[in-house]
Here is the input.
Amino acid sequence: MQRYRCIPVKIITLAAATALLSSCQNPQSENSSQKQFPVVEEHNIITVPAQLGGNNSVENTTTNAFSLPSSAMPLSKRLDFSVGNSFFRNAWVTAPASTTARDGLGPFFNTNACQSCHIKDGRGHLPASPNDNNVSMLVRLSVGASDDPRFSVKNHPTYGEQLQDAAIPGMEPEALLHFEYETHVEYLSDGTAIELRKPIPIIKTTVYEPLDDRLETSVRLAPPMIGLGYLQALTNEQILANADPEDKDKNGISGKANQVWDKDQQASTLGRFGWKAGQPNLKQQNASAFSGDMGLTSNLVTHDDCTAAQTHCNNAVNGGSPEVSDNILNKVTFYTANLAVPKRRNSQASDVINGNKHFQQIGCAECHQPKWEVGEVTDMPWLSNQTIFPFTDLLLHDMGEGLADHRTEFLANGREWRTPPLWGIGLTENVNSEFGFLHDGRARTLTEAILWHGGEAQFSKQQFTTMSEQQRSELIAFLKSL
Here is the structure.
């Protein structure tokens, strides 16, 4: 007989929820007064061109805006891109199957295709209703920080590092998952009321042991895939040049680099991919997603997320060893490195130009660094020597109690998140009408996303709340132009 136990995760973090409500009701609790950015003079405002992705930018505003190859890629490489696209887009199946190149799904999984999470290569979304599926998001699990540099956390002994709420035929999933929401209202200085929501995962365990108070969770949404090859091409030295973990310049911004385990090199190195910069490169990011999201092994990640306690999972038929060949992993990595960044729209409109000034003058660009120079990229020379505008520093920042998940990831603590790139953000809804902003998809609009900023971004958030309606509209128009 199956055992079911429903655990509302919000009970585990009741103290954190109380602190969240307190900080939301009292913005000064984030010490916003100590963050006094110098006003950026108009002649120092960085001009943002139409080609955010340099010579590889594409002009497209349709649902396929995030799915096009780097425009300067030679025709001889388009086949590699198409093959990678096929394995990224099409569904994997259970083993044994006649489709031997893409069998081995599960036994536990969250989705059966990369594209199911990264919808049209864009963002995922939270389920729209209790009956909607959860395929474009997931829940990370842990029971504390790891003191081993090879591991980001201590995995849950029964459920591993990630909750899988789907399973192959003949097996029960690890748990059933749905979401409830905590809401509160924030008021702008002109009296405008904005309702903010926070998703709370409700986990109903099935055949394995019930969850307990050790559990740490973090809801994660699939991010957009554009421009990743450029971000991989930036050198460690470039990224570290912007780090200021001790805030020596006293501007309230103390970005720090994550140090993560590189499985190929068997050494710690700088992290740059994932919501907490927990992965060092695209190949490992993809291999980890194949394993955690779909239960597929590779030579880089040789196991799926079955634990010793899950004997049925460990004894299930697999699709060979490895299930994802080196050739397939390399083609998918090539594909994810070469999804082009769309060009801006309305870049010469007066409201967009004014919005860019507001964005930089209130300190947003301190973390969302607009401009980078890419040097030589030997394996993909068409990406070489480009000026790009991703609007990220790839560093970790304390974002305050409101966004905290209270879960570490290597050097990232429970309040720290990597600055996400903003290029393409204005086309989010064009690509997928169902979407969410921030790491867990809680924000339904850009205004909501800004109002969730705290910690090092509290000053900028407060400046936004005191803007006139026209100024806020201009800032949002600028973001939508990206």
Q: What stands out?
A: The longest helix spans residues 282-294. Confidence is low (pLDDT under 50) at residues 1-5, 10-29.
